[in-house]
Amino acid sequence: MTFNALLIEKDDAGYRATVKPLTDDNLPEGDVTVRVDYSTINYKDGLAITGKSPVVRKFPLVAGIDFAGTVESSSHAAWKAGDKVVLNGWGVGETHSGGLAQRARVRGDWLVALPTGLNTRQAMAIGTAGYTAMLCVMALQNHGLKPDSGDILVTGSNGGVGSVAIALLSKLGYRVIASTGRVNEADALKALGAADVIDRAELSAPGKPLAKERWAGVVDSVGSHTLANACAGTRYRGAVAACGLAQGMDFPGSVAPFILRGLTLYGIDSVMAPKPLREQAWARLAKDLDLAKLDSLVNEVPLAGAIAAGADILAGKIRGRLVVNVNA
Ligand code: NDP
Fold this sequence. Notes:
InterPro entries: Acrylyl-CoA_reductase_AcuI (IPR014188), ADH-like_C (IPR013149), ADH-like_N (IPR013154), ER (IPR020843), GroES-like_sf (IPR011032), NAD(P)-bd_dom_sf (IPR036291), Zn-ADH-like_protein (IPR051397). With about 325 residues, this protein is α/β, with parallel strands linked by helices.
Protein backbone atom coordinates (compact mmCIF):
# COMPACT_ATOMS: atom_id res chain seq x y z
CA MET A 1 0.00 0.00 0.00
CA THR A 2 1.38 3.43 -0.88
CA PHE A 3 0.78 6.68 0.97
CA ASN A 4 1.82 10.28 0.38
CA ALA A 5 4.56 11.95 2.39
CA LEU A 6 6.53 15.19 2.33
CA LEU A 7 10.02 13.80 1.92
CA ILE A 8 13.22 15.74 2.62
CA GLU A 9 16.17 14.57 0.58
CA LYS A 10 19.76 15.78 0.48
CA ASP A 11 22.26 14.40 -1.99
CA ASP A 12 24.42 15.51 -4.92
CA ALA A 13 21.30 17.11 -6.46
CA GLY A 14 20.95 19.33 -3.36
CA TYR A 15 18.43 19.78 -0.52
CA ARG A 16 14.80 19.39 -1.53
CA ALA A 17 11.28 18.80 -0.19
CA THR A 18 8.85 16.86 -2.39
CA VAL A 19 5.53 15.11 -1.87
CA LYS A 20 6.14 11.49 -2.89
CA PRO A 21 4.38 8.14 -2.63
CA LEU A 22 6.05 5.85 -0.07
CA THR A 23 5.30 2.35 1.23
CA ASP A 24 5.31 0.94 4.78
CA ASP A 25 8.83 -0.32 4.05
CA ASN A 26 9.93 3.32 4.07
CA LEU A 27 8.59 3.88 7.61
CA PRO A 28 11.15 3.90 10.44
CA GLU A 29 11.35 1.53 13.40
CA GLY A 30 8.60 1.86 15.98
CA ASP A 31 5.96 -0.13 17.83
CA VAL A 32 2.91 1.93 16.80
CA THR A 33 1.72 2.69 13.26
CA VAL A 34 -0.65 5.66 12.97
CA ARG A 35 -3.03 6.78 10.23
CA VAL A 36 -2.39 10.52 10.32
CA ASP A 37 -5.35 12.88 9.97
CA TYR A 38 -3.61 16.23 10.37
CA SER A 39 -0.17 17.72 10.84
CA THR A 40 0.84 21.39 10.99
CA ILE A 41 3.43 23.92 9.95
CA ASN A 42 5.41 25.13 12.93
CA TYR A 43 8.41 27.47 12.65
CA LYS A 44 10.72 24.45 12.95
CA ASP A 45 8.89 22.72 10.09
CA GLY A 46 9.61 25.83 8.00
CA LEU A 47 13.31 25.48 8.81
CA ALA A 48 13.19 21.75 7.94
CA ILE A 49 11.28 22.15 4.67
CA THR A 50 13.44 25.00 3.37
CA GLY A 51 16.72 23.61 4.77
CA LYS A 52 17.46 27.06 6.23
CA SER A 53 18.71 25.48 9.48
CA PRO A 54 19.96 21.92 9.98
CA VAL A 55 16.75 20.67 11.63
CA VAL A 56 16.70 17.46 9.55
CA ARG A 57 19.73 15.39 10.44
CA LYS A 58 19.01 12.10 8.61
CA PHE A 59 18.15 11.67 4.92
CA PRO A 60 15.78 10.83 3.35
CA LEU A 61 13.29 11.78 6.09
CA VAL A 62 9.59 12.59 6.23
CA ALA A 63 9.14 16.14 7.61
CA GLY A 64 6.66 17.15 10.31
CA ILE A 65 7.35 17.57 14.04
CA ASP A 66 3.77 16.81 15.08
CA PHE A 67 0.65 14.91 14.06
CA ALA A 68 -2.73 13.68 15.27
CA GLY A 69 -4.42 10.53 14.03
CA THR A 70 -5.65 7.03 14.77
CA VAL A 71 -3.59 4.00 15.78
CA GLU A 72 -3.71 1.40 13.03
CA SER A 73 -1.55 -1.26 14.68
CA SER A 74 0.42 -1.46 17.90
CA SER A 75 2.67 -3.85 19.79
CA HIS A 76 2.99 -1.30 22.63
CA ALA A 77 1.00 -2.15 25.76
CA ALA A 78 -0.52 1.33 26.08
CA TRP A 79 -2.05 1.53 22.60
CA LYS A 80 -4.45 -0.46 20.46
CA ALA A 81 -5.95 -0.05 16.99
CA GLY A 82 -8.54 2.73 16.95
CA ASP A 83 -6.95 4.89 19.70
CA LYS A 84 -6.78 8.61 18.88
CA VAL A 85 -3.31 9.99 19.52
CA VAL A 86 -1.19 13.15 19.37
CA LEU A 87 2.55 13.41 18.88
CA ASN A 88 4.88 16.36 19.49
CA GLY A 89 8.64 16.38 19.21
CA TRP A 90 10.96 13.61 20.44
CA GLY A 91 13.07 14.24 17.32
CA VAL A 92 10.21 13.29 15.01
CA GLY A 93 10.61 15.30 11.79
CA GLU A 94 14.29 15.78 12.71
CA THR A 95 15.94 12.34 13.06
CA HIS A 96 12.84 10.10 12.83
CA SER A 97 10.34 10.33 9.96
CA GLY A 98 7.45 12.59 10.89
CA GLY A 99 3.88 13.72 10.58
CA LEU A 100 3.65 15.37 7.17
CA ALA A 101 2.45 12.07 5.71
CA GLN A 102 -0.65 9.90 5.63
CA ARG A 103 1.10 7.31 7.82
CA ALA A 104 3.70 7.43 10.56
CA ARG A 105 5.46 4.86 12.73
CA VAL A 106 6.78 5.92 16.13
CA ARG A 107 7.56 4.65 19.61
CA GLY A 108 4.42 4.24 21.67
CA ASP A 109 6.16 5.98 24.59
CA TRP A 110 6.15 9.20 22.57
CA LEU A 111 2.37 9.32 22.06
CA VAL A 112 -0.20 11.18 24.15
CA ALA A 113 -3.89 10.24 24.07
CA LEU A 114 -6.03 12.80 22.26
CA PRO A 115 -7.62 14.65 25.18
CA THR A 116 -11.38 14.40 25.62
CA GLY A 117 -13.05 17.42 24.09
CA LEU A 118 -10.64 17.84 21.17
CA ASN A 119 -10.79 16.26 17.72
CA THR A 120 -7.65 15.55 15.70
CA ARG A 121 -8.02 18.76 13.65
CA GLN A 122 -8.33 20.89 16.79
CA ALA A 123 -5.32 19.11 18.30
CA MET A 124 -3.26 20.11 15.30
CA ALA A 125 -4.74 23.62 15.23
CA ILE A 126 -3.01 23.76 18.62
CA GLY A 127 0.00 21.77 17.41
CA THR A 128 3.48 22.04 18.86
CA ALA A 129 3.21 25.84 18.89
CA GLY A 130 0.07 25.79 21.05
CA TYR A 131 1.33 23.02 23.31
CA THR A 132 4.49 25.08 23.87
CA ALA A 133 2.37 28.14 24.64
CA MET A 134 0.63 26.05 27.32
CA LEU A 135 4.01 24.97 28.77
CA CYS A 136 4.94 28.67 29.00
CA VAL A 137 1.66 29.58 30.71
CA MET A 138 2.09 26.69 33.15
CA ALA A 139 5.62 27.91 34.00
CA LEU A 140 4.28 31.41 34.81
CA GLN A 141 1.43 29.98 36.88
CA ASN A 142 3.76 27.60 38.75
CA HIS A 143 5.91 30.63 39.51
CA GLY A 144 2.89 32.02 41.33
CA LEU A 145 1.75 34.68 38.87
CA LYS A 146 -1.97 35.28 39.16
CA PRO A 147 -4.21 37.63 37.16
CA ASP A 148 -3.85 40.28 39.88
CA SER A 149 -0.03 40.02 39.83
CA GLY A 150 0.09 42.33 36.81
CA ASP A 151 0.09 42.30 33.01
CA ILE A 152 1.60 39.51 30.92
CA LEU A 153 3.61 40.44 27.81
CA VAL A 154 3.32 38.06 24.84
CA THR A 155 5.87 38.56 22.04
CA GLY A 156 5.52 37.24 18.48
CA SER A 157 1.80 37.71 19.01
CA ASN A 158 0.57 36.90 15.53
CA GLY A 159 2.61 33.70 15.44
CA GLY A 160 1.49 30.24 16.54
CA VAL A 161 2.96 30.27 20.07
CA GLY A 162 2.01 33.91 20.64
CA SER A 163 -1.58 33.72 19.45
CA VAL A 164 -2.41 30.59 21.45
CA ALA A 165 -0.70 32.12 24.51
CA ILE A 166 -2.93 35.21 24.23
CA ALA A 167 -6.09 33.10 23.95
CA LEU A 168 -5.07 30.96 26.95
CA LEU A 169 -3.97 33.82 29.21
CA SER A 170 -7.03 35.95 28.53
CA LYS A 171 -9.37 33.05 29.24
CA LEU A 172 -7.52 32.50 32.52
CA GLY A 173 -8.19 36.13 33.46
CA TYR A 174 -4.78 37.68 32.81
CA ARG A 175 -4.43 41.11 31.18
CA VAL A 176 -2.30 40.57 28.09
CA ILE A 177 -0.04 43.05 26.29
CA ALA A 178 0.59 41.74 22.78
CA SER A 179 3.81 42.74 20.99
CA THR A 180 3.73 42.43 17.20
CA GLY A 181 5.34 43.66 14.01
CA ARG A 182 1.91 43.50 12.40
CA VAL A 183 0.09 46.25 14.30
CA ASN A 184 -2.46 46.31 11.46
CA GLU A 185 -3.68 43.04 13.03
CA ALA A 186 -4.37 44.78 16.38
CA ASP A 187 -8.13 44.23 16.12
CA ALA A 188 -7.65 40.48 15.57
CA LEU A 189 -5.27 40.33 18.55
CA LYS A 190 -7.81 42.17 20.72
CA ALA A 191 -10.56 39.79 19.58
CA LEU A 192 -8.26 36.97 20.67
CA GLY A 193 -7.98 38.48 24.13
CA ALA A 194 -5.17 41.07 24.11
CA ALA A 195 -5.97 44.15 26.21
CA ASP A 196 -3.21 46.21 24.66
CA VAL A 197 -1.11 45.91 21.49
CA ILE A 198 2.41 47.37 21.16
CA ASP A 199 4.74 47.60 18.16
CA ARG A 200 7.54 45.04 18.44
CA ALA A 201 9.96 47.81 17.41
CA GLU A 202 9.66 49.01 21.06
CA LEU A 203 11.46 45.82 22.12
CA SER A 204 13.57 44.64 19.19
CA ALA A 205 16.50 47.10 19.34
CA PRO A 206 19.34 47.14 21.91
CA GLY A 207 17.91 48.48 25.19
CA LYS A 208 18.85 49.41 28.76
CA PRO A 209 19.78 46.82 31.41
CA LEU A 210 16.72 47.88 33.43
CA ALA A 211 13.60 49.56 32.11
CA LYS A 212 10.32 50.74 33.62
CA GLU A 213 8.49 47.80 35.27
CA ARG A 214 5.64 47.19 32.83
CA TRP A 215 4.61 43.53 33.19
CA ALA A 216 4.67 40.78 35.80
CA GLY A 217 5.35 37.97 33.34
CA VAL A 218 6.34 37.27 29.75
CA VAL A 219 5.77 34.56 27.14
CA ASP A 220 8.58 35.09 24.65
CA SER A 221 8.93 33.22 21.36
CA VAL A 222 11.28 35.78 19.81
CA GLY A 223 14.61 35.75 21.72
CA SER A 224 17.49 38.19 21.08
CA HIS A 225 17.02 41.89 22.03
CA THR A 226 13.28 41.31 22.44
CA LEU A 227 13.93 38.80 25.23
CA ALA A 228 16.53 41.06 26.83
CA ASN A 229 14.13 44.04 26.80
CA ALA A 230 11.26 41.87 28.02
CA CYS A 231 13.41 40.89 31.01
CA ALA A 232 14.44 44.51 31.61
CA GLY A 233 10.78 45.59 31.77
CA THR A 234 9.56 42.83 34.12
CA ARG A 235 8.33 43.76 37.59
CA TYR A 236 10.07 42.82 40.84
CA ARG A 237 10.07 38.98 41.34
CA GLY A 238 8.37 38.46 38.00
CA ALA A 239 9.00 35.63 35.53
CA VAL A 240 9.79 35.20 31.86
CA ALA A 241 9.12 31.99 29.91
CA ALA A 242 11.48 31.87 26.90
CA CYS A 243 10.75 29.33 24.19
CA GLY A 244 11.75 30.76 20.83
CA LEU A 245 14.21 32.50 18.59
CA ALA A 246 12.19 34.15 15.81
CA GLN A 247 14.36 37.29 16.09
CA GLY A 248 17.55 35.46 17.00
CA MET A 249 19.23 32.87 19.18
CA ASP A 250 21.35 35.44 20.99
CA PHE A 251 20.46 36.81 24.42
CA PRO A 252 22.16 40.22 24.60
CA GLY A 253 20.89 41.02 28.11
CA SER A 254 22.18 42.09 31.51
CA VAL A 255 22.19 40.40 34.91
CA ALA A 256 20.58 43.55 36.36
CA PRO A 257 16.94 42.26 36.23
CA PHE A 258 18.06 39.02 37.93
CA ILE A 259 20.13 40.49 40.75
CA LEU A 260 18.19 43.71 41.33
CA ARG A 261 14.61 42.62 40.66
CA GLY A 262 14.79 38.88 41.46
CA LEU A 263 13.64 37.98 37.94
CA THR A 264 13.27 34.29 37.07
CA LEU A 265 13.87 33.17 33.49
CA TYR A 266 12.29 29.82 32.63
CA GLY A 267 13.57 27.93 29.58
CA ILE A 268 10.77 26.07 27.84
CA ASP A 269 11.54 22.99 25.77
CA SER A 270 8.68 21.07 24.21
CA VAL A 271 10.69 18.48 22.29
CA MET A 272 11.98 16.31 25.13
CA ALA A 273 9.49 17.42 27.81
CA PRO A 274 8.64 14.46 30.09
CA LYS A 275 5.40 12.63 29.40
CA PRO A 276 3.53 13.65 32.60
CA LEU A 277 4.13 17.32 31.76
CA ARG A 278 2.87 16.76 28.18
CA GLU A 279 -0.25 15.01 29.43
CA GLN A 280 -0.89 17.84 31.87
CA ALA A 281 -0.39 20.45 29.12
CA TRP A 282 -2.76 18.68 26.71
CA ALA A 283 -5.40 18.22 29.41
CA ARG A 284 -5.12 21.93 30.24
CA LEU A 285 -5.40 22.88 26.55
CA ALA A 286 -8.63 20.89 26.25
CA LYS A 287 -9.98 22.76 29.30
CA ASP A 288 -8.52 26.27 29.11
CA LEU A 289 -8.60 27.12 25.39
CA ASP A 290 -11.64 28.76 23.81
CA LEU A 291 -12.20 26.53 20.76
CA ALA A 292 -14.03 29.26 18.85
CA LYS A 293 -10.98 31.51 19.27
CA LEU A 294 -8.74 28.62 18.23
CA ASP A 295 -10.82 28.17 15.09
CA SER A 296 -10.36 31.86 14.24
CA LEU A 297 -6.59 31.28 14.13
CA VAL A 298 -6.61 28.36 11.71
CA ASN A 299 -5.96 28.08 8.01
CA GLU A 300 -5.81 24.68 6.32
CA VAL A 301 -3.65 23.54 3.43
CA PRO A 302 -3.33 20.16 1.68
CA LEU A 303 -0.09 18.15 1.99
CA ALA A 304 1.34 19.65 -1.23
CA GLY A 305 0.66 23.16 0.15
CA ALA A 306 3.00 22.50 3.07
CA ILE A 307 6.06 23.16 0.91
CA ALA A 308 5.18 26.80 0.14
CA ALA A 309 3.86 27.25 3.68
CA GLY A 310 7.28 26.28 5.06
CA ALA A 311 8.85 29.29 3.34
CA ASP A 312 5.91 31.52 4.28
CA ILE A 313 6.21 30.87 8.03
CA LEU A 314 9.88 31.84 8.01
CA ALA A 315 8.99 35.02 6.12
CA GLY A 316 6.49 35.93 8.88
CA LYS A 317 3.57 35.68 6.44
CA ILE A 318 1.47 33.19 8.42
CA ARG A 319 -0.96 34.49 11.04
CA GLY A 320 -1.99 32.08 13.77
CA ARG A 321 -1.84 28.39 12.96
CA LEU A 322 -1.58 26.45 9.73
CA VAL A 323 -3.10 22.97 9.76
CA VAL A 324 -2.06 20.46 7.09
CA ASN A 325 -4.71 18.00 5.92
CA VAL A 326 -2.38 15.19 4.88
CA ASN A 327 -5.24 13.33 3.18
CA ALA A 328 -6.16 16.23 0.86
P1 NDP B 1 5.60 31.67 14.00
O1 NDP B 1 6.41 31.97 12.78
O2 NDP B 1 4.19 31.26 13.85
O3 NDP B 1 5.63 32.96 14.97
C1 NDP B 1 6.78 33.70 15.20
C2 NDP B 1 6.38 35.16 15.35
O4 NDP B 1 7.51 35.89 15.81
C3 NDP B 1 5.98 35.81 14.02
O5 NDP B 1 4.64 35.59 13.67
C4 NDP B 1 6.25 37.28 14.33
O6 NDP B 1 5.15 37.78 15.08
C5 NDP B 1 7.46 37.22 15.28
N1 NDP B 1 8.72 37.46 14.57
C6 NDP B 1 9.15 36.87 13.44
N2 NDP B 1 10.35 37.36 13.08
C7 NDP B 1 10.67 38.30 14.01
C8 NDP B 1 11.77 39.18 14.17
N3 NDP B 1 12.79 39.21 13.31
N4 NDP B 1 11.76 40.01 15.23
C9 NDP B 1 10.74 40.00 16.12
N5 NDP B 1 9.66 39.18 16.01
C10 NDP B 1 9.63 38.35 14.96
O7 NDP B 1 6.42 30.58 14.80
P2 NDP B 1 5.94 29.67 16.05
O8 NDP B 1 4.99 30.44 16.87
O9 NDP B 1 5.61 28.32 15.55
O10 NDP B 1 7.31 29.55 16.84
C11 NDP B 1 7.85 30.72 17.46
C12 NDP B 1 9.25 30.43 17.98
O11 NDP B 1 9.16 29.49 19.03
C13 NDP B 1 10.20 29.84 16.94
O12 NDP B 1 11.48 30.36 17.14
C14 NDP B 1 10.17 28.36 17.26
O13 NDP B 1 11.34 27.71 16.84
C15 NDP B 1 10.03 28.39 18.76
N6 NDP B 1 9.43 27.19 19.32
C16 NDP B 1 10.12 26.55 20.31
C17 NDP B 1 9.61 25.45 20.90
C18 NDP B 1 10.34 24.83 22.04
O14 NDP B 1 10.15 23.65 22.33
N7 NDP B 1 11.16 25.59 22.73
C19 NDP B 1 8.39 24.81 20.40
C20 NDP B 1 7.66 25.60 19.42
C21 NDP B 1 8.20 26.75 18.88
P3 NDP B 1 4.51 39.23 14.77
O15 NDP B 1 4.23 39.26 13.31
O16 NDP B 1 3.30 39.27 15.62
O17 NDP B 1 5.56 40.22 15.16
